[in-house]
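notes to self, project folder thing:

trying the whole complex as one job this time. last attempt i did each chain seperately and stitching them together was a nightmare. two parts in total, labels are on each line so i dont mix them up again. if this works i'll redo the older ones the same way
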Amino acid sequence: MSGSRPQPTDARPQDLPVKAELPRLRVEYVKDSRLAFLGHLDLIATVERCIRRAGLPFSVGNGFARRVRIQFTSALPVGASSACEYFDLRLTEHVDPNEALCALRGATPSALRPVRAAYVPGRLPALEAWLDRSSWELLVPGAGLDAAQIARGVEAVRERGELTYMRGEKAKRVDVASTLVGFEARDVEGGVEVCLETRLAGCALRPQVLLDAATDALGLPRASALRVRRVRQAHEENGRLVEPFGPFCEKDGTPLS
Amino acid sequence: MRARRESLFHLLEPLLAHVEHPARYLDHEWGSVQEQDGPFHLCMVYADVYEVGQPNLGVAILYNQVNAQEGMSCERCYLPWKDMAALMRENEVPLLSLESASPLASFDAIGFTLAHELIATNVLETLDLAGIALTSAERDEDDPIILAGGPSAWNCEPLAPVFDAVLLGDGEESIVEACACIRDARARGLTRLETLRRLARVPGTYVPSLYDVVVDESTTRWGRAVPRAGEDVPEVVLKRCVNDFAATPAVAQRIVPYMGIVQDRLSVEVLRGCARGCRFCQAGMTYRPVRERPADQVVRCSVEGLLASGHNEISLTSLSTTDHSQCAQILNRMNSELEGKGIRVSIPSQRLDSFGVEMAAAVAGGKRGGLTFAPEAGSQRLRDVINKNVTEQDLEAAARNAFEAGWRRMKLYFMMGLPTETDEDVVGIARMAKHVLEIGREVVGRGPKSGVSVSISVAVLVPKAFTPFQWCGQLDPDEVRRRQQLLLSEIRDRAIRVSYHDASVSLVEGALSKMGRAGFSLVRRAWELGCSFDAWTSEFRFDLWERAAAECGLDLADVACEHFPLAAALPWDHTSPGVSKGYLQREWLRAAEGVTTPDCTRDTCADCGVCPALRVHNVIQGVRS
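result (full assembly):
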C-alpha cells in the first residue's frame, strides 16, 4: 500500500533538478606513488569522499542509492600511475572553478591531487567513452631486454592483429589493429623506455598485456616490475585530437562533439 | 634482540603487483596519523585482513587515545592475506606496521584486539610473520611487550601463554597507563619480569605469567588461575570502566579507508553497555553499566564526523541502539540535518519491543532497505528462558509497522541449541518467519511483485564466559545438524530464506570459549598444521582442527559440549567484568525455571553487582519507555 508510505521531501520528482542543466565541472588530477595500486572502484569511492569533504555543492542522483553525480575516465590498470586523470562532477550551483579546485586540494590525499578544474559543456558525452585516446610511458627496468627486441615483439603482435589474454578466469580478446595507435622504444639508463599510444575500441589494450604478448612472441622472459604511467588523454574526432578541457569548437564555431 | 625501527616499504612495494587487493597494504589514508615520532611506539593489531579489521571501533578508539599522548605514538597492523604472507615469507620481508612500515618486532609494545574466539590462530600467524616468539616465556628481554584486550579477552586462557598482559574492560584509560608503565620500566632498565610485575599493578591488567593454573576437586578439568607464589598480584582482576562516557569522543573513526571495507560507514557509539540481561549475551554482561551519550553530542559529532570524513553513511552503533532513551529524537534530528546530502543513517539491529511507528518513520530517512530484528528463539517459553523479554505481539507490531512504513525485506536472527530447547521451539522459528511473511503480504500485497521477503539467520549457541549460560554445554554438532534439517523441512515458501551457521565452526568456537590455559597446545598445533583465517568459511579447515585436537589428546565435541558444575571454579574466575558470580548463578537457575529478570534501566535493580564493584551507575539521558 504505497499510499501510506511517507514520501521523502527531497525525492519528489517535481523538486529534482534536471541533470543536463546542472553545471558540469571537469577536474584533472594525478594518481601516483602508492595510490597507483588503488583499484578503479576504490578510486571512485575515494574521490566521492574527497568531494564531500571539500564541501562542494554536488548533485545527488535520483536512484535508490542516492549517489553523487560524477563520471570518471576509463579505468587505469592497478599499479599504473597517471599524470592526467579526469572526473566530471555535476554541481547544484555554479562555484568559481579555482575555489572548487582549492577546496578539493585541501580534502584530497596528495597522491590524488587535483591540478586543474574548469566547466565543460553539459552536452558532452560521458567522460569514459569520450576520452578515447591515451598516451603511456613505460619503463622496463633491468637487464635482459633491449629496445630493439621489444620493438620486434610489438611488431609481431601488431601483425597478428589481435591478442588474447586471461583476466582472472575470463579470456579477453583485444583488437590490436584498432587499439594500438603508436609505439616507440629506446634504451635508457636502467632499462628500456617505451612510449605507447592507445585508442579505446572494445576491450582496452593494457600496456602490460602488450609488453607480455611482445616478449611471449619472441620467446623471451616477461618483463617484471614494469612501471606504467598514463601521460595524456584526449578525444579523437575527425582525425584530430580534442584536449579534455577543449576547445570544444572549430574556429568557425562548429562544435566538435 | 629488538628489530631496528626503519621503513621497509621498499621491500613490500615490489610484492604489491602480485597480490589480491594491494590497497590493503597502502596506508596513507585520509585521517591516519603519519607523524609517528614516539619515542614510545605502540602498534595495534587486528589479526585479520585490512577490510575486516579497519572498521573495528576498539582499535580506532585506542589509536586516537595513544596518539593524543605526548611522546607516544600508535600505528596499525593487519594480517596480510595468504597470498601476501606467502610472498613475504619467500622474500624474507617481516610483518610491517602500516604508518611507518617499520617491522612489528621493532615496537615497544603490540596490542592485539580479540574480537572473537576464531581469531586465535591468526594471532599466532601474526607473531610468526613478525618474527616474534609465540609465547611470553620464549621472548627475549628487549622484545616488544605483547598486550591484548577486547570482547574475547573474557576467556583469554587458551591464548594466555601468548600475551604478556591482558587489559580487561574499557581500554581508553588503561592502554595509556599500560604504555606509560612499559615506557617508564624500559627507561629505568628494568628486566622484562619486573616490567610485567609493574604492569600487573595497573588496574584492570592481567599478567598471565604471574599466575599458575591449579587443577583440583573444586575446579573443572581446566583448573583455575591463582597468583604465583611470591607474586603480589590480585586474585581477581577487575575490569576497567569509563565512567564519564560522554567525555569520550563520540566519533572514533577518523581514518577514511581507500578500499571497500566490511562496514564502510562512519560509526558513532551512541551508548555503551546493555542491561536487558539476555542470558546468552557476553557483551550484555561484560560492558555494563549502561552509559548513554546525550542526543546533542551524538547529532553534533555525527554531522562534524561526516563533513570531516566524506562518508555517505553513518551508523549509530551500540549493543542496542533503539534502547537509547533519545533514539527517536536523535534519528529525527539527524535525518533533518542531513536531508538532500545523499547520506543514509542506519542502526545495526532493532529491538522488537522498541520499534514503534515513530521509530519506523525515522530509521533510514527516506530509504527502505532491509530491516533486522533478533527474536532469538521461536517460542515464548524459550524466550523467557533466555530472558529476551519480547513477545509475539512485539514481533507482530514491529513487523506491521515496518511493512507499513515501506520496508519489504525483513531479517530475523535466531539461535539454536539454547538450554531446554525442544523440536517444538525449532518449529516455532519457522512459524514466526511464516507469520511475519503473512503480515507483510497482508500489508503490501500477495503478488510476486510485492517484494516481501523474510530471511532467517540461525546461529548456534556458543556458551560464553561471564554469561548465565557459562555452565551449560554446547549442543552436540550432530544434533545441531538434525535440528537445522528439521527447520529447513518446515519452510517451503520461497519468500523465506534460511541461513545457518556451520556446526563445525561453532564447535571450534565453543571449544575455544570453554578451554583453560592448557587449550593453548590445541591452538598452537592447529596453527602449525595450517589453520588460519578460521572465521572465513573458505579457509576454515575442520579436518585440521580435529587432527590437532587428537594430537593433543582432546575431542572438540567433548570440550565444547561439557557442562560445568554450578559450584565449580571456572577457568576465567580470576578475571571479572563486575557482574557477580552469584548473580550469574541465580540467572542460570531462573533460566531453568523460565523466569525472566527485568532490565534495571527500566525497572528495579537486578543486583548484578556491577555498580558497587566498579563504583559506577547507569547514565540514562532521558526516560526509557
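what i see at first glance: Chain B has two domains: 1-241+509-594, 245-508.
need to look closer tmrw
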